[in-house]
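Entry 12.
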Amino acid sequence: MAERSREELFELYKIAIDEYRFEVKLNTDRMIHYIVANSALLSVATGLLKLDGAHAVNLFVALVFVTGALTSYLGIRAIRKGHQYYHRTILKTVIEDLLGFTASVKEHSEVTLAIGTTKGQAEIVRILQSPRAWLSACEPKPGSIVHAAVLILGLMQGMDIFGAIVTLILLFHPLPYIPWP
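Predicted 3D structure (tokens):
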């Protein structure tokens, strides 16, 4: 590898940090949008279920539920892919190491100048010793916000599928009309 000047490394580091911030922001925005959109679809479909059980209405409601299920699926895939992209930005640690940021601060043996805001980012030794192995284990970890968002979208997807099934059952086997007393 060609020797890089400290100025070049700092420029690369700035780019790596900007990319890191971009990936965090993009994935957070995606999580929020997918959860809000799926909440809205689920609410609309559930509200429409209360309407008179005309075939066209029930078919439309089933389609809204199916749309919600598909959107949840896309959201889960997008969030996981975004997490992979974010995970790859953590290789900024290599640049931090070349700049000397991963060395312990003398007064505080457990503190470095490397940016390590999450548990995964703090695994400096593991990242530097085996970056490929570290990257291959990039599934969202239980307890993380990303993992929770995936679980929430999975739950919403299950509710959408259940709603679609119930609506289709009502489409072919409508409940008898019972007037309100």
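Annotation: The chain has one domain: 6-103+113-172. Residues 41 and 49 are 12 Å apart (CA to CA).
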